[in-house]
């Protein structure tokens, strides 16, 4: 039986889920990229080659790599899974009865691989090629999307996150990303690899409106030894943190959550864009986040209550206490103030540890890499000239599913 357990941020990485750039990113244009939460359009062939290099670096480190589209296609081979996914995404209220029937019939006629591609990459009026007389269809142009692409699936970190012996299937903050959760719920519910596996589902796997209680995995750091660090950011709310903490404590999978307030800014979209773990006692950070952050420790109370304690001596001391360390080694973004801002924007602090003291990062962030190497960190540099345009680095683009404790 497959084992799914993530005990830390830096223990040996064993299984990871990635998503190679494909149809959804090919459909990014200057006129729609902002609505789809991208700052720029990518050269898909180049981005794909860079992503392949990333995946190969992980394989060379002994990591088993799973690709999202293939995993979704394998899930859709189960008729119950296909029905569930289509029920979630094609309905009479979204399209009107006539067009809904046409879209459903078209999707059911596709192979599982092609269906997975369109669920992620979207469907245009022209591709549907329908003679349906629906006014909904009649008011659309041939290049309009009947089903929008979801290019942010590239960032597999956010949609679900494994924390110790379970997973949170995250309610996403932005409408452009909400359908991603449908795919991950289906994979964890129906894919043969997960269907009979033994793991907890802490949060997010219900047909309900989660309202303001949103969580994205880029804000969730499994720092180890029963502790979890969660940033309250542009995308993750205090309400979401409290709900996830309750699930973690109820199952006994974590004993402490450190909740850190972050600036609500695009450049600090998630905690892992400014702060990541490189070795048991070592973190990379962007200096601007070190200024007066509110921080709380959440611990289990009686009757499934949560005890909240405001941290008075800074979040780095809270992390050191949780890891039973005297102090942390903190490695800043490299270069002068201008170079540091440029490198942080290009994901210099968004590194993925494959084992203690060995991290993957974009080769373009030369000043930060120099700082890391001086601190004794082994850096596995990957190309990111086009991948980096998506504003996500190695950690953003990876969802660890098995990783050792520290």
From TrEMBL:
Record-given protein name:
Arginine deiminase
Catalysed reaction equations from the record: L-arginine + H2O = L-citrulline + NH4(+)
Q: What class of enzyme is it?
A: hydrolase
Kindly give the PANTHER family that the UniProt entry links to this protein: ARGININE DEIMINASE
Record keywords:
Arginine metabolism, Cytoplasm, Hydrolase
Domain of life of the organism in this record?
A: Bacteria
Which family would the database say this protein is a member of? Belongs to the arginine deiminase family.
Q: What is its EC number?
A: 3.5.3.6
Taxonomic lineage: Bacteria, Pseudomonadati, Pseudomonadota, Gammaproteobacteria, Oceanospirillales
Cross-referenced HAMAP family: Arg_deiminase
Predominantly, its location class is cytoplasm
Q: Where in the cell is it found?
A: Cytoplasm
Extract the GO molecular function terms from the UniProt entry: arginine deiminase activity
